[in-house]
Backbone:
């Protein structure tokens, strides 16, 4: 994997043979699916590479948020059909999806063009989805005789509800961005020209907030949604907050009318 570091701009860029590109700039890591000639259809190698890239970003203290996007005006057309034999029963797409869903920092899917099949699977595994108004969405296992994995279906139902999930899965039809926004598949829809700036500004907002609050919120909300929040988990975050100093800094900054300088960089959670 090639690594290019531009010290003058505080930016580093890493590439994965022109297929999964990683750029880290001002605490924002952008993972770009880069096969525009195939509408960014993911090969087996790309699905296998994604969890490892996410592990590295999770451990990087300079990364506060991850943006998943696609090159050439398309998000992702799903799994490459040429590799279909490797996907059936192999769990490649599911492993990448679960790694993305379990990523401990905020994740945003920035969507242009087609977001179909496995691409929609990845987008749904992100915390938030921002899309251009020309985007198109579809979940297509009914066209291939494939049964959507139970955990993937559960995530989709949690996101958009049973009826909308059935509509997408029964029909395998593409829907427009406006309908995706209406059913809850999207959080924001913007003109194509405004999408990148809006995502950049939102990422900046996240990275200037208390990372303790952001990380705790993601962990607690995800656990509540999955019905697995425990008192011990909540207590550990409470102890982390009490020991971090972020609350003192936040109150001081408010009273002094200045931007806060939060110092928390990662969890020191231990089992009770």
Residues:
């Amino acid at each position: 994997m090639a690594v290019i570091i531009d010290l003058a701009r505080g930016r580093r860029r890493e590439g994965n043979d022109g297929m999964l590109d990683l750029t880290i700039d001002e605490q924002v890591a952008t993972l770009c699916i880069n096969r525009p000639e195939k509408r960014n259809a993911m090969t087996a190698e790309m699905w296998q590479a994604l969890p490892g890239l996410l592990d590295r970003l999770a451990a990087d203290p300079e990364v506060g948020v991850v943006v998943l996007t696609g090159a050439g005006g398309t998000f992702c057309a799903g799994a490459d059909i040429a590799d279909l034999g490797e996907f059936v029963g192999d769990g490649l797409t599911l492993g990448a999806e679960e790694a993305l869903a379990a990523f401990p920092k905020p994740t945003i899917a920035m969507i242009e063009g087609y977001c179909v099949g496995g691409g929609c699977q990845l987008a749904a595994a992100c915390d938030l989805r921002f899309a251009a108004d020309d985007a198109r969405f579809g979940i297509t296992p009914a066209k291939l005789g494939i049964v959507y994995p139970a955990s993937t279906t559960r995530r989709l139902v949690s996101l958009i509800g049973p009826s909308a999930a059935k509509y997408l899965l029964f029909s395998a039809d593409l829907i427009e961005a406006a309908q995706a926004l209406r059913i809850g598949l999207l959080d924001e829809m913007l003109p194509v020209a405004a999408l990148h700036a809006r995502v950049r500004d939102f990422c900046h907002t996240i990275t200037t907030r208390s990372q303790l609050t952001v990380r705790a919120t993601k962990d607690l909300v995800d656990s509540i949604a999955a019905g697995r929040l425990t008192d011990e988990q909540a207590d550990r975050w409470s102890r982390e907050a009490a020991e971090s100093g972020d609350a003192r800094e936040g109150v001081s900054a408010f009273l002094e009318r200045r931007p806060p300088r939060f110092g928390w960089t990662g969890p020191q959670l231990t089992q009770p």
User: Anything to note?
Assistant: Residues 1-12 have pLDDT under 50 and may be disordered. Residues 40 and 76 are 5 Å apart (CA to CA).
